[in-house]
Amino acid sequence: MADVLRYSAFTTDPAGGNPAGVVLDAAGLDAAEMQSIAAEVGYSETAFLVPAGVGVFDVRYFAPTAEVPFCGHATIASAVALADRGGPSELTFRTRSGDVAVTTGVVEGRSSATLTSVDPYVELVSDESVEETLTALGWQVGDLDPGLPPMTAYAGARHLVLVVASRSRLASLDYDFDALLGVMTAHRWVTVQLVWREDAVTHHVRDPFPTGGVVEDPATGAAAAAYGAYLRSLGAVDLPVRITLHQGDDMGRPSLLVVDIPAGDGGISVTGNAVALR
Fold first, then answer.
1. ∠ at Cα 121 (154, 132), nearest 5°?
2. Mean pLDDT score of the chain
3. Pairing of the two strands 18-23 and 5-9
4. Which of its termini does the chain have fewer beta carbons within 10 Å around, N or C?
5. What DSSP string runs through 150-211?
6. Alpha-carbon distance 132 to 127, whole Å?
7. Environment class of residue 267 by beta-carbon count within 10 Å: exposed (0-12), middle (13-18) or buried (19+)?
């Protein structure tokens, strides 16, 4: 098997965050080999990088059962792995969704990275699709926050955003894996971003990921960027703004994602630490 590094993203503690596999030089590997490696690694995603110039990499992301067009936590993990070996730098990741700018640095002695997404967009979603999703989750329409409607958001990958009215509703997640997989596959959603707003800049999130063969992600950078676009499109925050997303707490793998939402129509930036696992 190729040399696979293992990093946990959006944490400084190996017991937290979302683990990712990282292959820093995947030249010569085909898609089938990448998929096989990702399945063997077993993390939510493994990133495969092919150097394409100074600071430029062609990148593909594979979950255990499928390729995804963009993955935020594996991007952060890969960038920190590169920084650990070559120091802070400005990078370009050429992904299936487009070019993603990534910067790395050291904050309080710990490696961190910031990605800026491709141009995002937000779409309406039908009541029927929402009802199918809620049924799979075992939730009710009354569980949702009426001030923030369900929508599909994209910042490199498509996610359904559902904002709930209470922290207790978010904490109770025991969904029908096959049913949710069917709904998500039909609508090409990579994850479902489930959110509770503690206040204007503090949000708690969970992300079921059955399309990748994973019950739940402990930290989802692509969905965080999409959520930033969602909030901007609804005028739900004063811009520009920095918000924090707490994810993974209900799984015992606390993660912290920092999201910068600029005014205008540009990409959303997501920042986090990453730590080597072994």
1. 55
2. 97
3. antiparallel
4. C
5. -EEEESSSEEEEEEBS-HHHHH-----HHHHHHHHHHHT-SEEEEEEEEETTEEEEEEEEGG
6. 9
7. buried
